[in-house]
Amino acid sequence: MLNPKDWIPAAPPDGMPPLLVVVVDTEEDFDWDLPHDRASVSVDSIRHQTRAHRIFERYGVRPTYMIDYAVAAQDAGIGPLRELADSGACEIGAHLHPWVNPPHSETVTARNSFPGNLPADLERDKLARLTETIAENFGRRPTAYKAGRYGVGPATTETLAALGYEIDASVVPRTDLSDIHGPDFRACGADPYWFGPEGRLLEVPLSVGFAGLVAGAGPGLYGRLTRGPARRLRLAGIAARLRLIERITLTPEGVDHVEHRRLTRAMLARGQRVFSFTYHSPSLEPGNTPYVRDAAELGVFLDRFDRYFDYFLGEVGGRVATLRELRDLLAAGRPAGDPGTANS
What we know:
By secondary structure, the protein is α/β, with parallel strands linked by helices. Helix content is 33%, strand content 14%. It has two domains: 12-207 and 250-336, TIM Barrel, CATH 3.20.20.370; 209-248, no CATH class. It has helices at residues 50-59, 69-72, 75-86, 120-138, 156-162, 218-225, 228-232, 235-241, 257-269, 295-313, 323-332, and strands at 8-9, 19-26, 64-67, 91-96, 144-147, 167-168, 193-195, 201-203, 208-211, 246-249, 274-280, 319-320. The strands form two sheets. Strands 1, 2, 3, 4, 5, 6, 7, 8, 11 and 12 form a ten-stranded mixed beta sheet that branches. It has a two-stranded antiparallel sheet with strand order 9-10. The radius of gyration is 19 Å and the shape is globular.
């Protein structure tokens, strides 16, 4: 998954317009400032996902809810999302938060909060349990996955293939999380690619990129600005304010519409055709995440959805797709005889 030697570029078919997918980290409500806690399993915020769907409906957006065990195993999580899924308004994928996902064989620590750090058999057992719980409670087996905390590891690819997954959305391009026990994604760009056995798995990375006067220097320059003395001097922040180079993620969480436009223009100029708009489900209820603390901030948050979808479908001339639709489209464009085209 993280080794470029194992990748097959997912080339878009000729004439494909820019495509936008929406991926939601769908999880329990917990205090992000506190250590992970197995007892924090409230999913009250799931009933508020309809706030976003009022906007999605206007633009034909069908998000993929990557749901974790706390959501998949409780009526308060199942009910609202199953209604949306049964109506065709969304797709359902899997999101593994190890600390709330049985079997509970490991100690809850910061390192073990990244599922890819667990022993291979435990990572597989947890994801198998989550997969079966989703299948039982939603009537469909998930084929799209996003690791909690983006925590893929050395055994994740084999586990996904063994459990029948076809899409992963865990990669955070040009980002090194190793200082907090997470994976190192510095070798990964934002373009989708095929990986795994016979290239059957599709990776759809987060849309993370660089904008600014020297954005072409990209991860190399930004990496130097965020390490050692440069980090202590906060040179990355200074460079962003001067519009020299800034790292932007396509999310409404802490990123405004002006930044969304700058990122999109920069990525389009480099040939990017697939964009992933992501956020966390608890943000739709004020007080759960740092991004939405009150009703006023919720209004600003949802306005970013509206403005970006209008911009992408209008000015950019893009289209929306689900992760499944994107995979089918990219699979159809693979060369004849490519082993990954069989049973795509």
